[in-house]
Amino acid sequence: MSDSSWLTEFPQLERRDLIDIRKSLDGAYRSFSREYGETIENFFDPLLSFLIWFEKLLISSPWWLIIAVIIGIVYAASRSWKLSLGVLASLLAIGYFGMWEDTMRTLSIITVCTLLSIGIGIPIGILISRSNKAQAVVNPILDIMQTMPAFVYLIPVVMLLGIGKIPGVIAVIIYAIPPVIRLTNLGIRLVNVETLEAATAYGATSTQRLFGVQLPLALPTIMAGINQTIMMALSMVVVASMIGVKGLGQPVLKSITNQYFTLGLLNGLAIVALAIIFDRVSQTYAKRSQKHLEGHNNG
Amino acid sequence: MDKVHETPFIEVSGLYQIFGNTPKKIMPLVNAGKSKDDILAETGHTVGLKDINLKIHRGEIFVIMGLSGSGKSTLIRHFNRLIDPTEGQIKVEGEDIMKFPLKELTEFRRHKMSMVFQNFGLMPHRNVIDNVSYGLSVQGTDKTERYKSATQWLETVGLAGYEEQYPAQLSGGQQQRVGLARALCTNAEILLMDEAFSALDPLIRSEMQDQLVQLQNELQKTIIFITHDLDEALRIGDRIAILKDGELIQIGSPVDILLNPADDYVEAFVKDVNRARAVPVKTIMQQTVPLVTKQGLQEALNQLAAHDYAFYQSDNGFEGILLKETLEKALIEQPSGNIQSEHILATATVKPDTPLEFALPKALLSHYALPVLNKEGKHVGELRQEDLASTLDNSV
């Protein structure tokens, strides 16, 4: 009974084999990135130039104009003076404490990430709502995206594209896109069966059903997904700053390494302020657009 | 109803619906006559509908009645193929709709059939007028035209002025009126109604039933109506099919079902029905008493022939009863005279849709059969006491 050590010790791969596996995988990926890195980088070029243009636009425009535009959007979406005044106050405070430029950088990257997440996430959500097989494939991937530590998938992205805005955007999207996909899927699947049957019975095509019934009725749920996506994107700001994304994340990173408590706190609060603005505005907008769903409850 | 058409308007033949993973493979077992329970136990498949054969005529209200789980909602969803059968066909005007490709099916759904749902199936994000005109908007009709049509139908169902409201702001009865207006708005010939009134309060329900019958008199659609409520079936149905555990047990007119139940199951149902309330006068109405329409006494007597009495209807409408005895006496006095008001015996009258319950006291107080008058006050037949008695006698 010489070979019974597996009872006391976990039978594991030889250390040498393990190293070989790691080496060959790393090598393969490295040669892949050497081979295709540039092509992929070129593919993202239009996005990069848009990011740079948008960031410049936000920074170089006069601050009062930006504030006016933001307040305009907030009021148009929420129709609430109270919320608009709150947004105004927090933006003024951010500027007063010298964080205007970083805030604009973060705002630009978050806006782009959110738009991309919505643009990619909603079609995927629609797809998996229509096919249980697609859902069975996509759901575990979403689980991985949400639970895999961000640093882990940052490694291949950085290996492929280097440090900068694009890897940052990709990292943020990977982390932030699952809610919008999941909730689009859920929202469509929860649409009342009879209502959908009614559309079919009156001869609606599947496109007419999607745009006329399923999406409008799933909208509150989809909006909740978008809201979650924005919040998760904002929470990635600091992590993204580690791979060279400028903005409110970098001062926070700096204050961690140098133990600048106040600097960290102020920039952290600015992130919180942005989050609250995004959250309240998108939620009041969603609520306002669904007003007709509240009845008199008269039977 | 008109049975002029030799080929039925809608014909369901050999329709089977089996729920499960491999329904086609179960068909041999079903054909071999295995029971529903055995098949479920052996294969895990549920036999939803078993060998359904139906003929529905143009212009009738055909009611499919069954308790929950009998497969009635499944059955109605086959008519517009919201559900496809495992086997069998449904022919509409001789064409098998199961063979329609998607495009043709869509056209069929748009123009030929419309549907009213138990829980209304309205679109909460569209206001009333957009809901009503939904069928037309799917067809691509332009906005002014479809709104015009929708406004008109809303008026018909009694909801004028509610155009801008959202479904959540309406009561259940109002929502179902919207559902009805939506179904009528596409001008489809066939109306599918899936427990359309079951979710409503009893009072609203009977109001809606009346409205449906009234609308049907004007529109002459072909209505397939699903219900679990026998009283409702008897009240609105021209013919009734009774479904139990996915099988048809009896098809017949309301009175047929009431008076000649096919088996114990139907009989158990029928036993609790208040016949006096369920059977309207028209179902046992006869036309044996002659109707005098001429003014001359001699002509009147000729029309009376061997009968003791007749009903008299002049150009002004129904007048009353003429007794042979009175007429003969009058003829002796004035051989070429006309019928005068003193010759006419006043009588109570009933309407064709009046339930027997309300005709009963009048019938008890009258020595003669009760004349049945339509809405215009014109004679259509009579209600005889002996028919009334035999119909109300539950013991037969």
TrEMBL record, chain A:
UniProt keyword terms in alphabetical order: Cell membrane, Membrane, Transmembrane, Transmembrane helix, Transport
- Where do the ABC transmembrane type-1 domain residues begin and end? 103-282
Please state the span of the N-terminal signal peptide per the UniProt entry.
none
Against SUPFAM superfamilies, the record matches this protein to: MetI-like
The record's subcellular locations are: Cell membrane
The way it spans or sits in the membrane comes to: Multi-pass membrane protein
Q: Which InterPro entries match?
A: MetI-like, MetI-like_sf
Locate the transmembrane regions by residue number: 57-76, 83-100, 106-129, 150-177, 260-278
For this chain, the family text in UniProt reads:
Belongs to the binding-protein-dependent transport system permease family.
The name this protein goes by in its record: Proline/glycine betaine ABC transporter permease
Traced from the root, the source organism's taxonomic lineage reads: Bacteria, Pseudomonadati, Pseudomonadota, Gammaproteobacteria, Oceanospirillales
Automatic annotation (TrEMBL), chain B:
Q: Does the keyword ATP-binding apply?
A: yes
Catalyzed reactions: a quaternary ammonium(out) + ATP + H2O = a quaternary ammonium(in) + ADP + phosphate + H(+)
Kindly give the SMART domains that the UniProt entry links to this protein.
Answer: AAA
EC number(s) reported in the record: 7.6.2.9
Q: Where in or outside the cell is it found? A: Cell inner membrane
**Keywords of this entry:** ATP-binding, Cell inner membrane, Cell membrane, Membrane, Nucleotide-binding, Transport
Protein name stated in the entry = Quaternary amine transport ATP-binding protein
Report the sequence similarity comment from the record: Belongs to the ABC transporter superfamily.
